[in-house]
Amino acid sequence: LFDCDGVLVDTEKDGHRISFNETFAERELGVSWDVELYGELLKIGGGKERMTAYFNKTEWPAKAPKTDEERKEFVASLHKRKTELFMALIEKKLLPLRPGVQRLIDEALGKGVKVAVCSTSNEKAVSNNFPTTNAYMRDMVGIITKKLHHMGEMFLPIFVKGNSLFFELKR
Predict the structure, then answer these.
(1) What's the chain's average pLDDT?
(2) Does residue 139 carry a catalytic annotation?
(3) Is 5 designated active site?
(4) Domain ranges (residues) in the chain
(5) Which of 3, 10, 14, 68 is catalytic?
(6) Architecture of domain 11-91
(7) Residues 84-111, buried b or exposed e (16+ Cβ, 10 A)?
(8) Contact partners, residue 2, CB within 8 Å, separation at least 6
(9) GO molecular function terms here (predicted)?
(10) Structure pTM?
(11) What is the Cα–Cα distance from 109 to 153, expressed in whole angstroms?
């Protein structure tokens, strides 16, 4: 079992972070997250929560509303746009597998090893990189995008005790 984000594809650094920065630039917020800062922000679960925590810690942009309720709507609108930009990267296939991943999966499948990809990301973000993979992996798509509070929980429905190995990026 492979976690997609950070293990098979670098969706965070090359996808979500870029999309956040494009959103901030479009709205002329004067905010840009570099790789190091974004790595720290990843300790905060959820994009909306990440932005809110960042703005609360640093300073809300001058263009941001002043009330908590309006700020919540503002952050939701930023996140919606970020997601649109991220999905455009997915559609354009600009988030490829890391080097060696396809070969590893192909060799495992060739030896009869069942392989599954798990993720809390959008289903397209995962399946876009595995269009020709065998039926076993395609069957897993139904459970890969389940939103869970703890990343490891997503592996439980398909983990075969004593006969499974999973790879997950720890942040």
Answers:
(1) 80
(2) no
(3) yes
(4) 2-8+96-158, 11-91
(5) 3
(6) Orthogonal Bundle (1.10)
(7) ebbbebbeeeebebeeebbeebeeeeee
(8) 8, 105, 115, 116, 117, 118, 166, 167
(9) hydrolase activity
(10) 0.74
(11) 24
